[in-house]
């Protein structure tokens, strides 16, 4: 028997959609273990402290916030499966979602598989992830551990300069590390960095190592022209080298933009496939915040509920 709604992804967007659809008595099934490129629970599962999610004046650990949202959805009857989806078929109704273990049919589908930050593939980066190393300055940059400290940012585009500029509000100095001499960022963004006395440019350079004990304490950077290794004492390192939406499993089934994000019909969350909706970071390359993801998860749930009712499926 086809499910009324299946939600693929279990970050803030998917869990909010689960809460709303469960409260609407739609018995949602959440495929939460999206591990191919993403992570069950989303990027908050690797965030040690969340200070900017409303309702938690003292902050809350990312995994705890996700677990609380999951419990809230379960309270209203949402069902969870810790598996991946390998393939979808939106060519006929009800729609099918499948992996090597099972095939699920659904009248409506909410896709909330998020986006994964591009991360340098170094053992020391993985070791200190969430312990000084992050991919979201606006999420983590204001944490007490980074205030009045030297912080490093890696990247050469607009987002790297935006993050470096943002971090100067809290850091004593920001090292902006780029593997080339020229930035990809716009001239206006470059001028912002060059004119900021708190930003120090480290050009023609790549990260060689992150070091520390319990938390990171510094980085080693290699000059790509001379192979010289430089050591910088710093308490934080932010990756600003882009994100990749987790859409490989639907790339031939739904309209995506040139960067792989799901296209939706703003202000709704509807896709080009009737009864299929997108929410969270998988539709949003701009904000990438837990609260904005949760907001679009709410919208997708309401859109799905209304669509099911209009088609006598709710």
Question: How does this structure look, described?
Answer:
This protein is of the alpha/beta class and 314 residues long. The strands form four sheets. Strands 1, 2, 3, 4, 5, 6 and 17 form a seven-stranded mixed β-sheet that branches. It has a five-stranded parallel β-sheet with strand order 8-15-9-10-11, with helices on one face. Strands 12-13-14 form a three-stranded antiparallel β-sheet. A hairpin with a 5-residue loop joins strand 4 and strand 5. Helix 1 runs parallel beside helix 2, helix 1 packs parallel to helix 7 and helix 5 packs parallel to helix 6. The two termini are 14 Å apart. The mean pLDDT is 92.
In short:
This protein has 314 residues and is of the alpha/beta class.
């Amino acid at each position: 028997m086809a499910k009324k709604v299946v939600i693929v992804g279990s970050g803030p967007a998917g869990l909010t959609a689960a809460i709303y659809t469960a409260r609407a008595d739609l018995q949602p099934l959440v495929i939460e273990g999206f591990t191919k490129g993403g992570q069950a629970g989303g990027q908050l599962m690797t965030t040690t402290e969340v200070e900017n999610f409303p309702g938690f004046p003292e902050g809350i650990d990312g995994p705890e916030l996700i677990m609380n949202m999951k419990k809230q959805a379960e309270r209203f009857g949402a069902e969870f499966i810790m598996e991946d989806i390998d393939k979808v078929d939106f060519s006929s109704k009800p729609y099918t979602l499948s992996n090597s273990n099972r095939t699920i049919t659904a009248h409506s589908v909410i896709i909330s598989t998020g986006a994964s930050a591009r991360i340098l593939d170094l053992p020391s980066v993985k070791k200190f992830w969430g312990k000084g190393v992050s991919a979201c300055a606006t999420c983590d940059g204001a944490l007490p551990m980074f205030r009045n400290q030297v912080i490093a940012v890696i990247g050469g585009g607009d987002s790297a300069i935006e993050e470096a500029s943002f971090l100067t509000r809290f850091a004593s100095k920001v090292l902006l590390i780029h593997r080339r001499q020229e930035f990809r960022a716009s001239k206006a963004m470059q001028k912002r960095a060059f004119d900021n006395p708190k930003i120090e440019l480290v050009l023609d350079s790549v990260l060689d190592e992150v070091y520390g004990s319990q938390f990171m304490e510094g980085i080693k950077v290699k000059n790509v022209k001379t192979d010289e290794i430089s050591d910088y004492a710093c308490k934080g390192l932010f990756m600003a080298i882009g994100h990749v939406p987790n859409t490989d499993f639907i790339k031939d089934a739904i309209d995506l933009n040139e960067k792989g994000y799901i296209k939706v019909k703003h202000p709704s969350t509807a896709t080009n496939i009737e009864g299929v909706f997108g929410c969270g970071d998988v539709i949003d390359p701009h904000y990438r915040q837990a609260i904005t993801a949760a907001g679009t998860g709410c919208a997708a749930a309401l859109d799905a509920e209304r669509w099911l009712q209009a088609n006598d499926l709710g």
